[in-house]
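#random but structural
TW: two for the price of one
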Amino acid sequence: MLMHNPPHPGEVLRELCLEPLGLTVTAAAEALGVSRKTLSAVLNGKAGINPEMAIRLSIAFDTSAESWLNQQAQYELWHAEKHRKELNVKRLVAA
């Protein structure tokens, strides 16, 4: 079942991980081993969580990589579902 309008994982990362620890984007990016630009894109919803970033986050925040990837998948699927009726797809059935 899809969550209703799930937040972008970057929003979750900012609110539940960075802010409680008082981390700046620069400090968090350094700890994660990524550029400030890369982390900023995720936090601002301009980039998604890929498997490598999910692993980095899981190590840094003692979470599971799967949880980050699941959040990303739910976010993308919810947005894609809004355009379901616009897709030109025919149902396939056995002959």
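TW: number two ↓
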Amino acid sequence: MTISLTLACVWVVAAAIVAFLPMRMQYVPGLTLLVLAVPLLIYIGIQHSFWVVLLAVMGLVSMFRRPLWFLGRHLWGRLREGGT
């Protein structure tokens, strides 16, 4: 197994551990995992094909569906207001 996929597995385990924390303690580690996902996806893309990255993105969206939903709603609202 390549280093990128090993790191992705470690990322998934870390995300599962963060999910067990109380909600008030999930913000900082969850945001950290979300930020670290971007370079990890790029690294997976360098070592593997587009399809592997697509599978990883699907897993990311599955695990972070609520935060991404609220972020999308927030950004969409700001776009509709004219960026204020």
